[in-house]
Amino acid sequence: MSTVTRNMAKELAGDNIRVNAVAPGTIATDFHVRHSNEAHLTAACASIPMGRLGTAEECVGAYVFLGTDALSGYVTGQIIEVNGGQLMP
């Protein structure tokens, strides 16, 4: 994702097109509730420095920021990680 985002940003910047991405970490969803047991969720939370799964609502700010020209009009080629400090491979 990072290579595609940055390459597209370089290619399209001259046309005033910004290309950015949001990389959410482990987000609490219905999928996790249905397909994970308590031990798995506890282990997942232990791997996150903030000690918990994120929420969809916590990702919204990154999307609003990138979608608002007044806030991010000069931002391109960036990946915003919303992951509670969890390192992404």
From TrEMBL:
Q: Which Gene3D superfamilies match?
A: NAD(P)-binding Rossmann-like Domain (3.40.50.720)
Can you name one GO molecular function term for this protein? oxidoreductase activity, acting on CH-OH group of donors
Q: Which UniProt keywords apply?
A: Oxidoreductase
Q: Which Pfam families match?
A: adh_short_C2 (PF13561)
Q: Which InterPro entries match?
A: NAD(P)-bd_dom_sf (IPR036291), SDR_fam (IPR002347)
* Coiled coil start-end: none
What family is reported? Belongs to the short-chain dehydrogenases/reductases (SDR) family.
Q: What is this protein called?
A: Uncharacterized protein
